[in-house]
Amino acid sequence: MTHENRVLIAGAGPVGCTAALILAQHGVDVTLLESEPALAEDLRASTFHPPSLDLLDDLGVTEQLIPQGVIAAKYQYRDRTSGAYAEFDLGVLSGHTRHPFRLQCEQYKLTRTILPMLEQSGKVDIRFSTSLTAVDNKDDGVKVTIEGTSGNEQLSGRYLIGADGSRSRVRSEVGIELEGFTYPELFLVVSTDFPFEDHLENLSYVNYLSDPEEWCTILRVPGLWRVLFPTEVGASEEELADPANVEQRLQRLVKSDKPYNVEHITLYHIHQRVAKHYRAGNVLLAGDAAHLNNPLGGMGMNGGLHDVFNLCPRIADIILNGASEDQLDLYERQRRNVTIEYIQNQSIQNKKNIEQMQDDKRLEHIKNLQDMIADREQAVAFLRRNNMIEALERSHAIT
Ligand SMILES: Cc1cc2nc3c(=O)[nH]c(=O)nc-3n(C[C@H](O)[C@H](O)[C@H](O)COP(=O)(O)OP(=O)(O)OC[C@H]3O[C@@H](n4cnc5c(N)ncnc54)[C@H](O)[C@@H]3O)c2cc1C
């Protein structure tokens, strides 16, 4: 096969772009395929966890990302009805991470930061408006069919990374099942410049608000607050995204004399699913192509980044140093297990906690969190788990 040492990557989202940069910095040639004509201006992820910032720092990305976001050194669990809240200070994690804070920054800023680095590397052939349409998994490599502006073409490579998101064509081409379930309700995300900080006492940049009738999260990104609400099962998307209905929800959250200035209204289907395998021969899955979880806790993109920081150095070691391909099975064992043990379980539990209907249980939860905060050791353990440090360490320990 030609191009036998080239790695093909489907999808230039945060995971595909990061994979391309890691491989390029190791000296591996990459072809990065993206169906859209340009990088998506995707608002989905806004939280970068401390270990992701550490890893991206090793690539020279974090120092460019920090000025584009806001630093959330603290975050809160609040109860809308009683006003009680528990505030965690990520500063206690210094010694566990070089970045003891969450960075609130839209995910498109990551891909926009990486793209010029890929161009300058001289190692990455980036093809926009080019969709992967078929995969032929061979013994010594992989052949893919791509559809671009000038028609169909075939490309060969040693490996293919499917970083092509939740509806991954790569995943379906190699016949890997995405096991799990989909929640019946949609999540509604609204962004506004309304100054919530002037109305909700001591608000931090990341806030999870439980409520028996309508829980929500309020997250800061530069210049805007992003509010995430659950929605009624069975309501039409048109009805849910209707600006008048959105206005009513925001008015219920904080009463304002003037109508809210709303910048974006977006609805999302929410899943808890993990691919049955992350490897099929020379094809590897990473990011949303491999796993989907609800966004409470901000772990989907971060988990995808952790996938490729695990996978890509292994691929480079095989291509450049002749390391054993067993490394790729280890990738599947480490990342798939941790996705199930930590990310799936934690995000499902986060949703159960925030939507708790019983007043006494919600208040008990806040009280437990306050008690943990008062005990430094417990606070560190909680924050290591909830900010993905423990999961990353656990994945490295799996053999
Ligand atoms: C409301 C919401 C909030 C979220 N907040 C957070 C958060 O705070 N923190 C967090 O960690 N995660 C968060 N997430 C999850 C996060 O957005 C995703 O996990 C992340 O986008 C996954 O990145 P990816 O690169 O794997 O996939 P994607 O971002 O979906 O990128 C896939 C890319 O592949 C391209 N593509 C698709 N098919 C093909 C093909 N056949 N050929 C070529 N290209 C193709 C697509 O055009 C796209 O550019 C949130 C999700 C939602 C819905």
What brief labels describe this structure?
single chain, 399 residues, alpha+beta, FAD/NAD(P)-binding domain, 8-stranded mixed sheet, 6-stranded mixed sheet, 12 helices, 37% helix, 28% strand, binds flavin-adenine dinucleotide
Description:
There is one protein chain. This protein has a domain at 7-71 and 97-179 and 272-356: FAD/NAD(P)-binding domain (3-Layer(bba) Sandwich), CATH 3.50.50.60. 37% of the residues lie in helices and 28% in strands. It contains twelve helices and 20 strands. It has helices spanning 14-26, 50-58, 62-65, 107-121, 169-173, 237-240, 243-253, 300-321, 326-354, 359-374, 376-386, 389-397, and strands at residues 7-10, 30-33, 47-48, 70-72, 74-79, 85-89, 102-104, 124-127, 131-137, 142-148, 151-157, 159-162, 178-192, 206-210, 216-221, 224-230, 262-275, 279-280, 283-285, 291-292. The chain has an eight-stranded mixed beta sheet with strand order 6-5-14-15-16-13-17-20. A hairpin with a 2-residue loop joins strand 15 (216-221) and strand 16 (224-230). The longest helix is centred in the last third of the chain and has 29 residues, at 326-354. The chain starts with 6 loop residues before the first strand and ends with a helix. Bound molecules: flavin-adenine dinucleotide.
